[in-house]
Amino acid sequence: MSQPVETLQRTPVHTLPAEPGPSTRAVHAGAVRHNPYHAIIEPVVQTATYTFRDTADLCAFMDAHMWGMAAGRTEYGRYGNPTVQAVEARLAAIEGAQAALLFASGMAAITSVLLAMLPTAAHLVMTDDCYRRTRQFCLTFLKRLGIDCTIVPAGDYAALEAAIRPGQTRLLISESPTNPYLRCLDLERFAEIGRRARVKTLIDATFATPLNVRPLEYGVDLVVHSATKYLAGHNDLLAGVVAGEAGLIASLKNALGVMGAVADPHNASLLLRGLKTLGIRVERQNQNGQAVAEFLEAHPKIERVWYPGLASHPDHATAARQMRGFGGVVSFTVKGDLQTASRFIDAVRIPIIAASLGGVESLIEQPALMSYYELSTAERLQLGIYDNLVRLALGIEDTQDLIADLSQALDQI
Ligand SMILES: Cc1ncc(COP(=O)(O)O)c(C=O)c1O
């Protein structure tokens, strides 16, 4: 070991060539070249607290800490962890951000960021197809704190701009692509509206992944991911991340130390392992998404397909301009009713019925029976959710197997 254990800190000494590609970053960025015991893998530092040799050691740490100097260590698990820090360094590099911060889940990231950034009596603007729990948080929990939220139709940039209240609006939030219709926002336009009004912008890019689009490159201030999905990629953990400018992330880190929705070191280690294959996984998921969308669009038993890689998608031009791939989620309606869609889902053999997306296993769901189960058909229609809608989140299985499976299931309805 090159450092005594008590001063061991994560100093990335792994210098990559200039401008590494996304897959190289996903495997190597932020890694410590020489780990304790010469292990190639970042150690799982599974600890809740950290020790001090004596009171002088403690006082030296406190002095360094109080003056904002890099103490190279911390005193308690809620304030930092080397394994978590390794993931944060890698995610920042993949996202092209100055810094990133890891949370216990995607919702922990979203709720903590909003609570940290919005003072009482603030106002935020959100597009209408944001993740329903994000909407719920803004419309109920934040409202209780006197924070007002205006919801505008996604893609209506005039409405977005008009909703900004000078001096009161602090944040514009959107997603791209959205769920379930994969609407893609013009990120440059979104960021510009925020910049002109001096309002921060935040994009939840969970469905895109940083392999397909990096919102910070378009001038967006903060990007959030449910790392549970593509970033981790194996349907075996929950995590969330926010990335952006170092000063902003540092202030969010202080808030996280108080609010406490921190990632567990063991989960961080699993996430770090998942990230190493992000490049090839997303490449395959993009390929599966495009092939399956094209197959479904040409099938006589399919009514309509939503996939940003299809020319028929309303945001195809925007997506083609700003995305390197169109992702692994395909939404479609089968010809028929709620029962027809259920029969189709029950007939597929590879995709598994489950919520979520982005993992190696293909997952399938009928939104009417999952997220909107308690609503009537009429209520669902008001929200734009059709009874015969199916959402297919493709995994990394072989494309021809997936298409053959969907084909045999369609033959049965
Ligand atoms: C777009 C989007 N954002 C955020 C979340 C929340 O993430 P998590 O489930 O990791 O809390 C989800 C989860 O389904 C999501 O789809």
Question: What would your notes on this structure say?
Answer:
By secondary structure, the chain is of the alpha/beta class. It folds into 2 domains: 11-45 and 81-275, Type I PLP-dependent aspartate aminotransferase-like (Major domain) (Aspartate Aminotransferase, domain 2); 279-411, Aspartate Aminotransferase, domain 1 (Alpha-Beta Complex), CATH 3.90.1150. The chain has helices at residues 22-28, 55-66, 82-95, 106-117, 132-144, 157-163, 187-197, 246-259, 265-275, 278-297, 316-322, 338-347, 377-382, 399-411; strands at residues 99-103, 123-127, 148-152, 169-175, 200-204, 222-226, 240-244, 302-306, 329-334, 352-353, 363-365, 389-393. The strands form 2 sheets. Strands 1-7-6-5-4-2-3 form a 7-stranded mixed beta sheet, with helices on both faces. Helix 5 links the parallel strand 2 and strand 3 (148-152). Helix 4 (106-117) packs across helix 8 (246-259) and helix 12 (338-347) packs across helix 14 (399-411). The protein starts with 21 loop residues before the first helix and ends with a helix. Residues 1-8 have low confidence and may be disordered. It binds pyridoxal-5'-phosphate. Pyridoxal-5'-phosphate binds next to helix 4.
Q: Provide the succession of SSEs.
A: HHHEHEHEHEHEEEHHHEHEHEEHEH
Query: What separation lies between the terminal Cα atoms?
Result: 63 Å
Mean pLDDT, to the nearest integer, reads: 94
Give the CATH architecture of the largest domain.
Answer: 3-Layer(aba) Sandwich
Total tally of structural domains: 2
Q: Gyration radius, to the nearest Å?
A: 22 Å
Q: Give the % helix.
A: 25-40%
CATH class of the largest domain: Alpha Beta
Small molecules bound in the structure, each named once: pyridoxal-5'-phosphate
Shape: globular
Strand order of the largest sheet: 1-7-6-5-4-2-3
- Structural category is alpha/beta
CATH fold assignment of the largest domain:
Aspartate Aminotransferase, domain 2
What's the helix count? 14
Total beta strand runs: 12
Strand composition percent: 5-15%
